[in-house]
Design a protein that fits this description.
0% strand; 51% helix; elongated; 112 residues; Ribosomal protein 63, mitochondrial; mainly alpha; single chain
Length: 112
């Protein structure tokens, strides 16, 4: 009896097929003080991050044109995207017509 009580105190988690956290005989993880402290620390960290993100470093007026003040070229996203599109277009072959393709056959026109 004493051995059963001691062995029953330590609950062994064996490999259970299926969803071990659902159903009638599910395994519920215990909430320990360490886990509680981790959750509290996470909440405080998220609150600190939100406080930092709510206060911008520069105003909207300062943000407008700051890349030009730093001497950066093509600061706007539109110019950047247009540049990428143009680079992709240059990788493809140039447009050619059928006349250009068969121009080498026009070197000798005996019938005219």
């Amino acid at each position: 009896m004493h051995l059963t009580g001691v062995l029953g105190f330590y609950k062994r988690i064996t490999k259970i097929s299926g969803m071990r956290h659902r159903g009638k005989h599910r395994i519920i993880p215990q909430v320990t003080p360490k886990i509680k402290m981790q959750v509290v620390e996470d909440v405080f960290l998220q609150k600190r991050n939100l406080d930092i993100l709510e206060k911008p470093y520069i105003t909207k007026e300062q943000e407008y044109g700051h890349m030009a003040a730093l001497g950066k070229e093509n600061a706007s996203r539109v110019n950047f995207k247009a540049k990428i599109v143009e680079e992709k277009r240059q990788k493809f072959c140039q447009h050619r017509s059928l006349e250009d393709q068969l121009e080498h056959l026009n070197n000798k026109k005996a019938w005219e």
